[in-house]
């Protein structure tokens, strides 16, 4: 029996709390809604859920602006509702992860309010990055850094006496002031926060934006960026914060805290997963994951790869080799709340072009989309990702094959990226549209509970749903063997029953006989051979893979129409060993 911890090959389902299910009919997703829909997650076969931040927050970045790290936002429920969710999830053997945001808090956090009310140089300001401006009157920002969400990374404050004052640093929006981790208060607060939630039964944390937590002490100007760099990518070139090494001391401190917690609480196995985008740099990714830092760190490159054999392989093989050689686990994902949904991404007319490879999930291309093609490829992509060694993180709605909603009106958009770039970047709202559970438009397709609130109809959802959303609903898909939902369910079952978690990832040679097949990606996990055909033409297995594969075990395209001697276009198949 493997002694590996539960999370090593777990399937974790990301719940975007605001959009999953609304239990009280106010149009906003909440904890009671999640509890009421746990059956869906159990039937899907996930090991854990990760809740996006549900702490008290002004919701200017939908919870990634935390005003109190020790509570629940009233829009989402309260601590009792949280405890109920954890207990009900546990009853179904589903673990619960939260989301911790260490880089910044909300400008409504009591610490930031106190900092605004206190003079320059005060201990209250030392928890943040307050600096004097440049120019004769301090009217220019302290440096040239650009924010992830557009614009300068600095905002000037008005001092208590009404005079124009210092500036504060915010890597994201002005409502998200960065915390200075060289301040002991900051370190201590997060230590007690982790323990507070572990004591409530939480099994771990997804850790937000870890790559920007460190900062060079003098905050020097960033060097010029390469010509043609997209507006949303400028921040990523700032060497004085992105991957700045000082933060690693704090991640080591967190790991010590967690190891000690586990030692004091036998039976608890906790996990942290870091969010660090490290394009083409497995060596950098490795710095975040391991026995003295985060348990896991997302391997994001695969998510952003164009639909081509060379890019798929180059986003899997080097990171898998580097992390595996170091004994570090692999953590795959194809979707999250910051990234255009896979069905749309893979369906874009430029999905097979190198030019679409932005390597930045906030930079989208505006190419026209064919959803049928995108859905086929998304089914193939998850069938590939599910075969890789390590854990797999899903984003709510991908199991329904939801597309990105591209035509949200400007009046409905809420993402700070949209506002900070004055609409030049549409932002992430299109992947955050409330989920459809039924075909009943009167309850926002089952998103809002009709029973709560008695006779009053449920409020409109906080973000409008497209008219055809019901066709994607759980109710519409669950009894259809060809649906995306049925495929996800059987894929997760097959992953559990057919794959040996300890089997290494191998890349068999196709052999001269097979001839050049640039559309085929072939990998092996133990006795299972995984074949992806990224081309538009069906390929006969016997011709292209002689002696490599046996019985057809699984196919990502529509069930029921499958000829086992063929790997259809834009399809991933799993095969048993050659007979
Ligand atoms: C992370 C989150 C994103 C958030 C940002 C600021 O990238 O995933 O949603 O806006 O950090 O917290």
From TrEMBL:
An example molecular function term from Gene Ontology annotations: alpha-amylase activity
Domain called Glycosyl hydrolase family 13 catalytic: residue spans: 14-432
Source organism per UniProt: freshwater metagenome
UniProt protein name: Unannotated protein
GO biological process, one term: oligosaccharide catabolic process
Pfam families xrefs: Alpha-amylase (PF00128)
